[in-house]
Request: fold
Amino acid sequence: GAVVSQHPSWVICKSGTSVKIECRSLDFQATTMFWYRQFPKQSLMLMATSNEGSKATYEQGVEKDKFLINHASLTLSTLTVTSAHPEDSSFYICSAPTGVSSGNTIYFGEGSWLTVV
Amino acid sequence: AQTVTQSQPEMSVQEAETVTLSCTYDTSESNYYLFWYKQPPSRQMILVIRQEAYKQQNATENRFSVNFQKAAKSFSLKISDSQLGDTAMYFCAFMTLSGNTGKLIFGQGTTLQVKP
Reply:
């Protein structure tokens, strides 16, 4: 079964509103999680590293005020797309590593389709 | 900075035949992992195979095997006895083992179609 759960799978929101996507590790604690964005027929682009108990680390070109990341516990990271616009429509997917002591396995969530209308 | 390059945007293969997907990467790191992921239309990321850079032996998983050439920074995936269910997008990915592990750098992807 899934060890990283992402919710919601699909979300439609109106332009100008905010939407939150959750990424939850079910069987292990993840001090770090990662958020990726994927446009159709393109690769996964890392947006940011979510760090439990501290600020997220954003990749160059990613607006930190638009894509708010919160890692409030060892099993939950959230991505909030603020003041969404149609160009934010995309597939968002998170991942969580189990860590060196657990074999450095990377688990991905199921992904979330965001459509901004 | 690390980069991963997949130079084949699309490939096709007949069912039961063998196909090889190419991947090259660039890094100054000595300790890292390389991955091949499969992404079917559902968009779920499925790990196909993982190679630890310190291992000389090429990784294999059933019909999937890699040709890891560390000096050449090449990491190709061979799929034997291709099946219709192998139709998907395939991504090569790099992960350093120093510092912030878990961060994956992906190649552009190769769309593979297996034809009956």
In short: The radius of gyration of chain B is 14 Å.
